[in-house]
């Protein structure tokens, strides 16, 4: 097996922290993921306590503790797959393959990283915030949700000295409106060279891509299509990309060539 | 204890084969598992030219199953032979090419190009439900089935293994047609034609409309059809459909299959092969049997029970 390759193993739940509403933090023991996963990479995981649905689900790695051999996922319960994970008790196991996928590339030297998260799209930015800190890049986070209860992961960014601007659709916290409006307002102040990074619902990613194009700034978007295998064989998670120099768009696997893509290449539906 | 099996001229070190369309071209899994533990692997379906495949969504989960319409996206046979085969050469496993075509001539041409060192056999895809030409359109018509299989038979000296469609009333008719046309073995079965509907929007949940159902949901149907086919012909049958564990594989072997393919379970857990191999060895030990062949076709079916069409 090549170094850095994904590793398939049963992982024990070693910690769980219920957050508000449908959100929970789950910590599993998987030494290779803990050691190697980079921000934006994911694992395919399914609780061994359930038989349905049959497929594993992709989750971004939120944090990792190489010393303990553990990593943590930020899970929003939205269906039976995430429910199965959230219902695990300590010591119970899940089948897990990772780390998988293309991570967030660091911004060019001198660029400030503008992180744009929608709801549970916050997950990869905790790890990315740490990576940016180690690389001595400045970063700023824009965090949006329907309501304040969707903005569950704010503390890690205070610890990382990453300024945080929130937005909620219902005005319950931060800017009343779309998170991309807050990003646009920041770009209006001509902040110097920036690279946008976005993870969240498709509509938000598309809005970030449009904003990046209008303002002539680079953007990396983490897509979240339906994923079957995570390793490029089921061809279920393909996205249409039109890369520079290519005559027509082609399908590419989000699991192996993404999930992080250059926003300019994505052909939005 | 002997796990090796022989399939119409194709020798496998064990009866586990990775099913077409669920294992890419093999190399996708080389960093995750040792491909040399596999008896064999079947490539994703290959045409003469690269194919884009269907629009998205392409996969949707249904109870105990996976409904897909990928549409045979692929790199084409030439790129497979040039770029992939050399990488597979370092593994001790039988590489089987899944041959596709829009026309009989295309099947023959793909088969000719595929006959190259490193390829152990050809599986003929006459049963994909997710393409407008070829595929199931050939495998659902006995005359076309005969024509395609005979043409590929003529084009190659490699073992020829048609993959039968379950979307027919009598699978034994097609099994016999394939045998007459010169097939060396049969893969039984491909996916079942299905439809899943988003009732809020009142549209199919797959962009293509219908799709092919796989996974544990189809296993009893696959076992029944493989059992019927195995009784209808003298050539060996490879059972495929919903295998996710040792017992599932054994069902097909007991029913009369000489080998089995694992499909959808690859997506769920790449550790499935190691698990089933351990399980098969344990089963042989527990039943004090020498080899897989001692399991094949040992079903004790009630003498007075119905056996279905064609048997």
Describe the structure.
The complex is a heterodimer of chains A (269) and B (311). Chain A has helices at 31-36, 80-86, 123-134, 155-159, 179-188, 202-215; strands spanning 7-18, 23-29, 42-47, 57-65, 70-76, 93-100, 112-118, 139-145, 164-168, 175-176, 194-199, 219-222, 238-241, 250-253, 260-262. Chain A has three domains: 7-100, Translation factors (Elongation Factor Tu (Ef-tu), domain 3, Beta Barrel); 104-221, Rossmann fold; 223-269, Dihydroorotate dehydrogenase B (pyrk subunit), domain 3 (Ribbon). Chain A has a seven-stranded mixed sheet, with helices on both faces. A six-stranded antiparallel beta barrel of chain A has the order 1-2-5-4-3-6. By secondary structure, chain A is α/β, with parallel strands linked by helices. The longest helix of chain A is centred in the last third of the chain and has 14 residues, at 202-215. In chain A, helix 4 links the parallel strand 8 (139-145) and strand 9 (164-168). Chain A has six helices and 15 strands. Helix content of chain A is 20%, strand content 34%. With 311 residues, chain B is an alpha/beta fold. Chain B has a single domain (5-53, 72-193, 214-294), classed as Aldolase class I (TIM Barrel). Chain B is built from nine helices and 16 strands. Chain B has an eight-stranded parallel β-barrel, surrounded by six helices. Chain B has a four-stranded antiparallel sheet with strand order 5-6-14-11, with no helix packed on it. In chain B, strand 15, helix 7 (246-255) and strand 16 (259-262) form a beta-alpha-beta unit. The two termini of chain B are 33 Å apart. Chain A binds chain B through residues 1-2, 5-8, 46, 51-56, 95, 97, 225-226, 228-229, 231-236, 238-239, 250-251, 256, and chain B through 22-24, 28-29, 31-33, 44, 52-53, 56-61, 63-66, 68, 70, 73, 215-216, 244, 264, 266-271.
